[in-house]
């Protein structure tokens, strides 16, 4: 999460800031406006089409009907930029400590210091489970040289090239790739430039391959530990949240030398308000939501994926960018990211079970003593499944006799190994059957108190696909003043 550079902008007592779109990025922008740009909080307006905050980033479900973990959401909220943001916010539970210290204390209490706090990574191939060590890079000399060569390439060279164009084929069977792709969602067809950025951002800081725990990339963690506390802080400051409001008809000045946003319409139901911007006003757009167009299934039915190509499923984060991008050439190319679903589709699933024999069998299978949970990469899976077995509980409302597992698949458009349908056509029960087949687990009678909820996300890895350098706009577009 990059910090906007507001220090160079002149702000006055009359400055108003308009933030379009939802998510933690929008909230972070508001925090920086308050703390760095000294904008008066009531003059910061966050406009969101959702009816209330809980619908923005997380729909958790329930233990009885099945939780929906919203797993593998990108970008991953980890690293120094996120830590710096959280360190500026007050704790939600006590006076004095920051929100970062509160989270770190909770993690320390959750996992005793003497225990192993690194997530276990395992690969299951040909019926055998093998632990993957994370203390080193696990790369051959040949693979290290290939990786170093990527690190020294220019961005202009890498941006439109796929990772698989620059690395040998057997690199993608290496322990390094197995772990890196499980944590960050990279695939061989993704952008080499984005892959290099992730290496540069995380490797120097963490010094090992085990960077994230199972909870780090879950909807519960992001919403309950990050999004909700930041939202409550901004609300307490008096930031103006306008839910159920849509931004339309953004107007850009015709001054080719210094074009700027001059106005827009705010639409709520049948009401429409035209807003003209002042000279010192600020507009921030959170563009390109990765969860746009998501479709949820049930234990007995697949996601309603047939409508995923419909334009009306673009959320505000895309519609605003598409609208403004059509009017002004300096704001990137949203079509490069939102129309390539064969490359960006990910399907996640959440397994909620009271059949404790399933959880116990999985724990016995992986033989992992880590309190941070375990990732299992099903190496023979046509669907490219990663299964996470996190420490329990996962949800704060989760009963003691309930266990929650989750995972995701990067190839949902192909048939399974044990279920003769493509993943997008499968119910939650079908997905569980496929996973149990790979793990060689069979139950008679069948598991009766287990619910699996699938979620198809057509643009989940849109951040990672190949692009031209100008397809993604700068954080502060050089061609735009506001």
From TrEMBL:
GO terms for molecular function: FAD binding; oleate hydratase activity. InterPro entries: FAD/NAD-bd_sf, Oleate_hydratase. This is Oleate hydratase. It holds the Pfam family MCRA. GO terms for biological process: fatty acid metabolic process. PANTHER family: 67 KDA MYOSIN-CROSS-REACTIVE ANTIGEN FAMILY PROTEIN (AFU_ORTHOLOGUE AFUA_5G09970) (PTHR37417). It comes from the Eukaryota. It comes from Penicillium chrysogenum.
